Amino acid sequence: MLLEFDADQRLWQETARDAIAKQCPPTLVRSVAEDGADPTPLWKTYVDAGWTELTDPENAVELAIVLEELGRATDPTPFLATMTQFAPLAGERFDPQQAGTAVYGGVAAHRDADGWVLNGTAHHVLDGDRAEKLAVVTEAGVFLVDASRVTARRSPVFDPVLHIAEVSFADVHVPDSDRLSATDSERARHVALTGLAITTVGACQRILDLALEHVKQRQQFGVAIGTFQAVQHKAVDMHIATERARALAYFAALTISADDPRRRLASAMAKASAGEAQGVVFRHGLQLFGAMGFTWENDLQFALKRAKAGELLLGGAAEHRALIAEEFDAADF
């Protein structure tokens, strides 16, 4: 496996970065947070650009490139949930025009005369309140459900542009035709973990970029604070943590692209490393900004909150470290 982008991937990265900088500037993110601006036109831009068609496993690295840039921009659309949680479960039933998400727990399925009945409540569902389709993971299989048939309520969270919802199922009848028995739910979870990891990396990079810009301009005792060794050490720690997490996230994307059995371990390592990176970057980013970093007027807050959300969703670093330890303990070397 090559861990360097080829010429096409570098061009794709530049294209995605330029497009997102133009279509999703910080002013748009702030307008969504402060004024409740509708991000649907931005979502339609992604759809029209063909980004929602990057569902083939062979495109895992190209999708990761887009997700990193969206994480850097604090994307307010349901792209992450649609492409990394819903699409891998929906498979051939995925419609690139529709937003979707996955429901991973809290719902039980039992048979009746007409098919299946779903009951239960799922908590902390990413974009559960604005998805058009739901892929519901149960012990009986994965079910495709129209969002109009469930009750979804957005939960207040610290990231003002992130949608987290509580989704309730009350005797929702699903025919056998909407039971996706051929879905590889384990592989889909690896995609979801990798997507969150690379999104967190993008947010960490944004924090680092803002911090570096600040320490170059902010002066103390007549010189830029970036010349102080203590400040430089913190910036280096942020850079190293971000680069390590980025390398593991792209390695995980490569294992998905190549259908490599190491993807189970790689996705857990990527998620754990991204979670640990945000801890370092979050702490040092705030410290380098000083009191300014705590103000609503500073755009740093959006990247900080997106990085922290990436750590908490689908299990934190400690949980995935434990999984990695179990894998190595069980391995026969």
Automatic annotation (TrEMBL):
Domain called Acyl-CoA dehydrogenase/oxidase C-terminal: residue spans: 195-326
Entry-linked InterPro entries: Acyl-CoA_Oxase/DH_mid-dom_sf (IPR046373), AcylCo_DH-like_C (IPR036250), AcylCo_DH/oxidase_C (IPR009075), AcylCoA_DH/ox_N_sf (IPR037069), AcylCoA_DH/oxidase_NM_dom_sf (IPR009100)
Keywords assigned by UniProt, alphabetized: FAD, Flavoprotein, Oxidoreductase
Signal peptide boundaries: none
SUPFAM superfamilies per record: Acyl-CoA dehydrogenase C-terminal domain-like (SSF47203), Acyl-CoA dehydrogenase NM domain-like (SSF56645)
Top-rank taxon, per record: Bacteria
Pfam families (alphabetical): Acyl-CoA_dh_1
Cofactor(s) this protein requires: FAD
Entry similarity comment: Belongs to the acyl-CoA dehydrogenase family.
Protein name: Acyl-CoA dehydrogenase family protein
Organism (species): Mycobacterium deserti
